[in-house]
Amino acid sequence: TYVVTDACIKCKYTDCVEVCPVDCFYEGETMLVINPSECIDCGVCEPECPAEAILPDTEDGLEKWLELNTKYSAEWPNITSQKDPPADADEHKGEEGKFEKYFT
Ligand code: SF4
Ligand code: F3S
């Protein structure tokens, strides 16, 4: 599966949602997550994210994000079409420590 990481926090560009063939993105207050049991591993969303927030879970050190995506995709609503990002999205692109600072 692919997973959304903390680089999405406060950015939420939602380009990913537009290209996913199985609509497996779920939206929280500060970020989106992928439902790992619905993701078909097609990889199309990865290069579409301007914040480079999406990675395959085969990369090292992504266990935390796999867990978070699994947990919250079961709680948050499905999002199936692109919407405007927050007005200050570009200011938060590439910022460090976003999970600790902003995640809700
Ligand atoms: Fe959707 Fe494919 Fe991305 Fe999985 S890898 S979330 S199926 S676009
Ligand atoms: Fe987030 Fe990137 Fe999608 S910032 S909403 S994972 S396009």
Description:
Keywords: 3Fe-4S, 4Fe-4S, Electron transport, Iron, Iron-sulfur, Metal-binding, Repeat, Transport. GO terms for molecular function: 3 iron, 4 sulfur cluster binding; 4 iron, 4 sulfur cluster binding; electron transfer activity; metal ion binding. This is Ferredoxin. Residues 76-104 are annotated as: Disordered. This protein is of the alpha+beta class and 104 residues long. It has a single domain, classed as Alpha-Beta Plaits. Helix content is 28%, strand content 12%. The protein is built from 5 helices and 4 strands, in the order βαββαβααα. It has helices at 15-19, 45-48, 63-73, 89-92, 98-102, and strands spanning 2-4, 25-27, 32-34, 54-56. The strands form 2 sheets. Strands 1-4 form a two-stranded antiparallel ribbon. Strand 2 and strand 3 form a beta hairpin. The longest helix has 11 residues, at 63-73. The chain is globular, with a radius of gyration of 12 Å. It binds iron/sulfur cluster and FE3-S4 cluster. The site of FE3-S4 cluster has 13 residues, from helix 1. Iron/sulfur cluster is lined by residues 2, 19-22, 24, 34, 39-45.
Summarize the structure.
This protein is of the alpha+beta class and 104 residues long. Helix content is 28%, strand content 12%.
Write a concise keyword list for the protein shown above.
104 residues, alpha+beta, Alpha-Beta Plaits, two-stranded antiparallel sheet, two-stranded antiparallel ribbon, globular, binds iron/sulfur cluster, binds FE3-S4 cluster, metal ion binding, Ferredoxin, 3 iron, 4 sulfur cluster binding
